[in-house]
Design a protein that fits this description.
The model has no long low-confidence stretch (mean pLDDT 83). It is built from 19 helices and 15 strands. Helix content is 54%, strand content 17%.
Length: 468
């Protein structure tokens, strides 16, 4: 067997051009297949992080009736014993209490239905972290002439800035990324002109944070008083005056149009729900253990009082969106693999045509067809292994860098992403099962392609081969 392997290895390098062409086709097939799949899975992972991990949590504790009829009447009591039971599970990273309901917001002649989210100001920082998204810069129309006059701005910079007129930003870094401006002096000057003061809530604050698009619709500024009216617990009246402490920019356009953050104690007072919650949002140390942790918490908590839902249950729209796009990606990858397979198959046909006389001579001098078939299969395996190995080595730095340092969109592309509710970045998925599966699929294609040479050798007639 050792001699067969040595013969196969020497054979593939007797015609270096043929081997290099075949290995190169495998290299590029694997390279582009892994990159494409990594971009796809990286996008899914970022969507889940942005919507689930950074807002709703992977798991939620709810009242048994809340999922079918979300409302204040289907809430549950919040106490330390409940929190201790949840935190005792080793898979739970953080559990954040929330009180969510709808109310009518009003200021002057402007009114709009809003989603009031009562949060534990300190614990929420470990989940959605609203403070990170406070608006500190606004490109208001009456300020932009002064911005365009800043020395050092190119025509392209001004074009990009004009696209973001009336937009809001949480940091200078965000302005730099979206507008493509890298000069720190210019950025500092833009920051001076467009500075906007937003403050975060205190633990027992009686003020509110208002989402950016909602504040623009209602023409709210810091210090304005927002009137909220709604229905509290068991039909009680809920009404109050709330000073605006800060403006917060939410990635999701739907939420950015209607979200009002309030401290949990003030929200419980407003809705007449002392020590009551609508949900407990939970993030995990290992997201792949979501179902396991869900089952463990279900066994521990009182089933008559609490139910544990995972994000795929309370956010089916996102799940279906990912599944639909993933199916399309798999179909596209399958088409790519079919094209690649026929490329490899064509190379194999070329190899058989060139080596027909060689095979005839080997059989004529006494080599058994079965042994020759083993040699050819091992040759194909070596060529496939070389192409696959080089492909994996070649793509690995890109996967690593694309995961650690995602591609940042700028200009029109960045604005298009943000208008759709996505952060303007394109991350690659880290090394995972998909990486090794692509390599295995390509190797299998090479071995399947070797079926034709085996069939040709089995039917080979010595005289015809020697005349070739």
């Amino acid at each position: 067997m050792k001699k067969i392997i040595q013969m196969a290895w020497r054979n593939i390098w007797r015609n270096r051009k043929r081997t290099i062409i075949t290995a190169a086709s495998i290299f590029f097939a694997l390279f582009f297949a892994i990159i494409m799949r990594s971009f796809q899975l990286g996008t899914y992972g970022h969507m889940i992080h942005q919507v689930i991990e950074s807002y709703s949590g992977y798991l939620q504790v709810q009242s048994p009736d809340y999922f079918d009829e979300p409302g204040l009447d289907n809430s549950f009591e919040y106490d330390k014993a409940l929190l201790d039971q949840i935190n005792s599970n080793p898979g739970v990273k953080i559990a954040v209490p929330r009180l969510e309901s709808f109310a009518l917001a009003s200021i002057g002649a402007k009114t709009k239905g809003v989603l009031v989210n009562g949060i534990d100001v300190e614990k929420e920082g470990q989940l959605s972290n609203p403070e990170r998204n406070l608006v500190h810069y606004r490109f208001l129309s009456h300020l932009m002439d002064a911005v365009y006059a800043i020395p050092g701005l190119s025509e392209d910079d001004i074009t990009n800035l004009k696209m973001y007129e009336n937009a809001s930003f949480s940091s200078l870094d965000k302005i730099s990324l979206n507008c493509g401006i890298t000069d720190t002096k210019v950025l500092d000057k833009i920051g001076e002109i467009t500075a906007f003061e937003s403050n975060y809530l205190q633990p027992n604050d009686d003020g509110v944070l208002v989402s950016d698009r909602l504040s623009k619709f209602m023409k709210l500024n810091i210090g304005d008083t927002l009137v909220l009216m709604g229905t509290g617990y068991h039909g009680s009246s809920a009404a109050g005056l709330f000073p605006v402490r800060g403006i917060i920019k939410i990635a999701s356009p739907e939420l950015d149009n209607k979200l009002v953050y309030m401290s949990l104690p003030r929200a419980q007072e407003f809705f007449s729900m002392e020590n009551m919650l609508t949900t407990l949002a939970i993030n995990l140390y290992d997201n792949s253990e979501m179902v396991t942790v869900q089952n463990e918490l279900t066994d521990v908590l009182d089933k008559n009082t609490y139910v544990i839902k995972n994000w795929q249950e309370f956010n089916p729209v996102l799940k279906q969106s990912i599944e639909g796009d993933n199916a399309g990606g798999i179909v596209f990858a399958a088409i790519l693999y079919v094209i690649v397979f026929f490329g490899i198959f064509g190379t194999v046909l070329m190899m058989i045509a060139e080596r027909k006389r060689e095979f005839g001579v080997l059989i004529a001098i006494g080599m058994k067809k079965r042994l020759l078939m083993y040699v050819v299969v091992i040759e194909m395996f070596f060529i496939g292994a070389v192409g696959t190995l080089i492909g994996m080595i070649g793509v690995s730095p890109l996967i690593y860098l694309g995961n650690k340092f995602p591609i940042q969109m700028t200009g029109k592309t960045a604005k298009m992403y943000e208008d759709m509710g996505y952060e303007a970045i394109m991350p690659l998925a880290s090394f995972d099962g998909y990486f090794w599966w692509q390599a295995l699929i390509v190797l299998l294609m090479v071995l399947v392609a070797s079926y034709f040479p085996l069939k040709s050798i089995r039917k080979l007639k010595i005289m015809n081969a020697l005349r070739a």
